[in-house]
Write a structure and sequence with these properties.
The structure is a single chain. The chain is mostly beta strands. It has one helix spanning about 60; strands at about 5, 10, 15-25, 30-35, 45-50, 55, 65-70, 75-80, 90-95, 110-115. The protein has a six-stranded mixed sheet with strand order 2-10-9-4-5-6. Strands 1-3-8-7 form a four-stranded antiparallel sheet, with no helix packed on it. A hairpin with a 6-residue loop joins strand 4 (about 30-35) and strand 5 (about 45-50). The longest helix is centred in the middle third of the chain and has 4 residues, at about 60.
Length: about 120
Amino acid sequence: VQLQASGGGLVQAGGSLRLSCAFSSTFSSRVMAWFRQAPGKQRELVASISSGGTTDYVDSIVKDRFIISRHNAKNTLDLQMNSLKPEDTAVYYCNSRNRIGRPPWGQGTQVTVSS
């Protein structure tokens, strides 16, 4: 399995979740990212992080609520999500930010935020 996301679930608005992703060592030098896809919408980028730890957030989504991190030795990627809102409800995926050489999308992990 090249990408395995986990940690999703059902949470009330204002709550927190921590997503984790295990990825193949093949992508250890890549900029890795979290994406999400809400029902009826296109998949969108949420945040990314380079192997050196440089982070980039989609401010319109994150607004200082999410923190992306990675553990290079373990080839894992995390997304700490705080102050969750119903509009954050989506399937969350991890993958390479760069489309070139991007592996197939995994199943993702469902996040549901109730109001």
